[in-house]
Amino acid sequence: MKTFYLDLSQFLSYNRFMKILAIETSCDETSASVVEIKKNKKQPIFFILSNIVSSQIKIHQPYGGVVPELAARQHLKNILPIIDQSLAQAKVKPSQIDFISVVDRPGLISSLLIGLQTAQTLAYVWQKPLIKVDHVQAHLYANWLSSQKINFPALGLIVSGGHTQLILITNNFNFKIIGQTLDDAAGEAFDKIAKMLNLGYPGGPVIQKISQKGNPNKFNFPRALMTTKNFDFSFSGLKTSVLYKIKDLKQQKYNLKKITPDLAASAQQAIVDVLTYKTIKAAQEYQIKTMMLAGGVAANKYLRQQLGKKIENILPQVKFLAPDIQLCTDNAAMVAVAGYFKFLKNK
Ligand code: KG4
Ligand code: ZN
Please, which residues have CB less than 5 A from ligand 2, an ion? Predict the structure, then answer.
């Protein structure tokens, strides 16, 4: 296949606008976005011209989780209309796009392939360069969409349905994983606990909502690995503990529906406590200047509030950032930013 190169020297020497078309299909959201970048002397400034997200939640809801085959079929049906819509909303023609950015890992392989092959085909037909990016890192880059200035070293906490990672960021493109989950991801814990409580899928938003009516101190669920020196996490013990508590309450003939808000609030509290504790510890050890939250679970208002408050009290010199709520869950705008920095790095 022919390779198309972008004239980087031209981009670096002029303060011109650059436009990226980004595509995201790693799980159950089909998304396309056009992001415009103004190269400022110090920091690039990102403008979202469009960010169309087509969620498949309703299709997967009856199964209590994402069904890979159904997800791939849906991506196939949606991908071209979503890209058309994204270009139309941005009022951008394919000829005005500088390059295409697409997620190629990690995720559901059959879903990833739809986005990747579409991007490869468009890149070939339109004769544009193609940049492939990592989905997990792209989540972190969502913070660049909401904030103009990020000081390094920075710490990123990525909490999604598939990953929980603490990442040390030493400049715009150097990411080092300093801790991660040894089993379930934080989002997975929310989803599985919601399933046990018959709250439906996805679990995070519904647990957040029902927790507002519950007592977070009613049940003392385990907070794993709090005394270890490293920054790893584990959420499978919490999940098992909630399962046994439900069984126990049922045996004791408790009204489970009545006590569900307390169970949800106590589980959410355990997750937030562990995430907050480990993040503060890592922030202290690496003497960071900026703390960034990212991933679907970053949409959790209680986590944002608790982490923000703790940082303000314990590390007032650290700037706390979290993406806008709609940029926390899967979307293509974050993929555009990740592609932009990869393009700069690989010049
Ligand atoms: O980043 P994301 O959209 O997809 C993955 O890359 O996995 O994250 C999805 C996860 C799901 O587990 C979902 O339950 C969780 O993010 N989530 C939340 C909230 N909104 C989404 N978890 C807690 N509170 C929320 N408000
Ligand atoms: Zn994601």
Answer: 160, 330
